[in-house]
Design brief:
Layout lengths: L6 H7 L4 H4 L3 E6 L2 E7 L13 H18 L7 E11 L8 E11 L3 E10 L4 E13 L3
Antiparallel strand pairs: 1-2, 2-4, 3-6, 4-5, 5-6
Length: about 140
Amino acid sequence: MMEGNQAAAFEERQRGTLPGELEVTWDEVANGSARGRFTVARKHMAANGFLHAASVVALVDSACGYGCVASLPEGANGFTTIELKANYLGTAKEGETVACRAWLVHGGRMTQVWDAEAVNETTGKAMALFRCTQMVLYPR
């Protein structure tokens, strides 16, 4: 289990990966919680001109995954996602900010369950509710 806010370390670690390419920034990555955001740009959009659902999943799933790493039990060395679900309630336009908050619901030795909410910070409206289950991994 990591101590304190690890946001800067996770932001550095994601360079060259999907969250980095989508310019996700982190306010908090800590034991039991994570908070991040991105400003909607053309790269976040679907061909139909609306925000791509996968951009929102990239944000909330990354928040849950980073939080999971910061919350691993002693002896664990990683995790893998075994289930995820998203319910979409709204969208965002180019130039608006999408923020998320993720929190640990269940932190067991073998699994973690995380919930997250994505919000359009510009309008204040909820955009998506997300839940994922992580299987905790240990060295062989």
